Amino acid sequence: MSSAVFDIAVKTIGGEDKQLSEYGGKVLLIVNVASECGYTPQYAGLEKLNQKYQDAGLRILAFPCNDYGAQEPGSNAEIQQFCTRKYGVSFELFDKVHARGPQQHPLYATLTKATESKGEVSWNFEKFLISKQGEIVAHFKSSVSPDSPELIAAIERELAK
């Protein structure tokens, strides 16, 4: 089944091309991340979600972004090293993208134009939940932590479908 999200190509943090269609049949949590943000400790919660739900079909896709307060100034290699060393991140990291503005990545253009969206991404660590069919089912602002009941309930609901 095709959707606008699954039609998008991205680059891994290592520079390899990847089609989001490769995640068909998985529930995705797409997050714009930054290493120097007040929300950066959410990496730990995201990793806990990854550990708990990966076998059930959840994939967390983290997209570093320097659009908000210039809080992700590092190179891809520096970002990957930081995430692995400080938070033990084992979920997938991708190439740094723009979540807003004239150079907005096509992924974020699609995510923010969806009717389920709360509009533009306004800060780091906003989360988009994508169904197994590639449909955007929820958008959570930065203040919604990875362990929040509303996010966990939404993830479990999608995994159960």
Automatic annotation (TrEMBL):
Source organism superkingdom: Bacteria
Active site: 37
Keywords recorded for this protein, A-Z: Oxidoreductase, Peroxidase
Cross-referenced Gene3D superfamilies: Glutaredoxin
PROSITE patterns: GLUTATHIONE_PEROXID_1 (PS00460), GLUTATHIONE_PEROXID_3 (PS51355), THIOREDOXIN_2 (PS51352)
Pfam family, one: GSHPx
InterPro entries referenced in this protein's UniProt entry, alphabetically: Glutathione_peroxidase, GPX_AS, Thioredoxin-like_sf, Thioredoxin_domain
Entry protein name: Glutathione peroxidase
Source species: Microseira wollei NIES-4236
